[in-house]
Amino acid sequence: MKTPYIYFGTKGYYYESDSGADQYLAGNSATSLTLAVAGMVPVDHTAGTANTSTSTAAYRILVKSDGTEASAEAGSAYTSFFYPTDGSITYVATKPQAGGVIELNAGAWGVASSGQVTFIAYSADGTNGYDLQDDDKVFVEQIARHDSVGNGASATNLSSAHAYPMTAFLGANPVAYAGEYWNGTALDQTDLHFLSTDGTGTDDIMRIIHTAGKYPDLVKTMEAVANCGIYNRAVTFYDLDINGIETFAGGPSLSGANDLGIVGCWRTTA
Amino acid sequence: MKYLIVNDQATLTSMGAVDQTFMFPQNRVLGMESLTDTTTHLLIQGTNDVDDEDTIVLVHADKSAAATHKVERNLIDDMVSAINNDSRLGFTVLFDLLNNVKLPNQTLASSTFTED
């Protein structure tokens, strides 16, 4: 019996609203990002602006300030906003402005013990450091398929990819997700369940982070893929290549555009 | 129902043991996954244990190299096309080391079949 196949590449995405003005991700102490939560586990990285080619080139870390700061909290190396770029917020050197997004350089954080991200304080490095404040929003976004992100089967392998026959599709489950994209777009999470590739009774979950309210369109997209009648190749639901180029199935019309607003896509287990 | 055949042995006399030559129906495919830079796995429902998988390892060029970074994606298309093939024979040879048959984006050497 012929069946269409659906293909998923990997894009890690992690969001948090900082609590307690700590200098860590995923909690108030050094806590590792996990594959299930973030879709990637950044490999160990020593903070330093030159340490980019082997450890941080595949992802970026952005901070959106919750408030306009009166004291110096961002290093002097930062001179403009990553977002917005329309001049609606005036950049003030070393003093984060409410709503302004700054892209940290590789000197602003370190990674240890398989995914523990610790930010360098401004007081420790007045050039690259950044003091996170309570309710600042932090975004970790994978931007290329790269072996610096340990979300393959091991840290030295490229991001994983998975393909399933649509006959193995079990269903789409919306999951509560309190997150947003760095441009302010509210996000939702949908878990796509498939029969496990290892034959056991535990299902495989493809986790999709997408624009809020797109669950109905996502369901229709899965239906469209299942009934597309394409049998000589796999239909790409989402992919991110080594050059940072993304491929989308699109929405229910399979337009090929990012109609679902996908910002994250990964399998929750390696 | 169509069937797929794989053989990872180069001589006729070595084809009799387990983990060497195999035929399976196209609806037993559980999925495909690429977890390393030079191999992509085709996973099918286990022969000896239906709650386990049999693993067909297809070797390919290094997907971390700029010149061949699409090879794994293209190989998955090769597999899907073969699995869904409307062959009048009723079967399709996925790869066969003895007769030098392989998928376009596959490297035949070291491609293997392993029962659960």
Record the SSE blueprint.
The complex is a heterodimer of chains A (270) and B (116).
Chain A (H helix, E strand, L loop, with lengths): L4 E4 L4 E5 L17 H4 L20 E6 L36 E3 L5 E4 L3 E4 L17 E6 L18 E5 L3 E12 L5 E9 L9 E8 L3 H12 L7 E7 L5 E3 L15 E4 L3
Parallel strand pairs in A: 1-12
Antiparallel strand pairs in A: 1-8, 2-7, 3-4, 3-7, 5-6, 9-10, 10-11, 11-14, 12-13
Chain B lengths: L2 E5 L13 E5 L3 E6 L4 E7 L7 E7 L11 H13 L7 E6 L10 E8 L2
Parallel strand pairs in B: 1-6
Antiparallel strand pairs in B: 1-2, 3-4, 4-5, 5-7
Oligomer: heterodimer
Strand-pairing-aware structural class of chain B? mainly beta
Order of helices and strands of chain A: EEHEEEEEEEEEHEEE
The description of the largest β-sheet of chain A is:
4 strands, mixed
Low-confidence stretches of chain B: none
How many helices of chain A? The count is: 2
Fraction in beta strands of chain A: 25-35%
* Broad shape of chain A: elongated
Number of strands of chain A: 14
Strand order of the largest sheet of chain A: 8-1-12-13
Tell me the number of helical segments of chain B per DSSP (H or I, 4 or more residues long). Answer: 1
Euclidean distance between termini CA atoms of chain A: 29 Å
Question: Based on DSSP secondary structure assignment, what is the total number of beta strands of chain B?
Answer: 7
Main sheet of chain B? 4 strands, antiparallel
Number of domains of chain B: 1
Structure description:
- The complex is a heterodimer of chains A (270) and B (116).
- Helices cover 6% and strands 30% of the residues of chain A.
- Chain A is mainly beta and 270 residues long.
- Chain A has a domain at 5-11 and 157-267.
- Chain A has a four-stranded mixed β-sheet with strand order 8-1-12-13, with no helix packed on it. In chain A, strands 2-7-3-4 form a four-stranded antiparallel β-sheet, with no helix packed on it. Chain A has a four-stranded antiparallel β-sheet with strand order 9-10-11-14.
- The model of chain A has no long low-confidence stretch (mean pLDDT 93).
- With 116 residues, chain B is mainly beta.
- Chain B has one helix and seven strands, in the order βββββαββ.
- Chain B has a four-stranded antiparallel β-sheet with strand order 3-4-5-7, with helices on one face. A three-stranded mixed β-sheet of chain B has the order 2-1-6, covered by helices on one side.
- Chain B is globular and about 40 Å long.
- The relative contact order of chain B is 0.27.
- The model of chain B has no long low-confidence stretch (mean pLDDT 92).
- The chains are: A mainly beta (270), B mainly beta (116).
- The A-B interface holds A 1-3, 5, 7, 145, 147, 152-154, 157-158, 160-165, 167-168, 194-201, 204, 231-234, 236, 239, 241-243, 270 and B 1, 26-27, 29-37, 40, 43, 45-46, 49-53, 63-64, 66, 69-70, 72-73, 76-77, 80-81, 83-84, 86, 116.
- β8 of chain A pairs antiparallel with β3 of chain B, so a sheet runs across the interface.
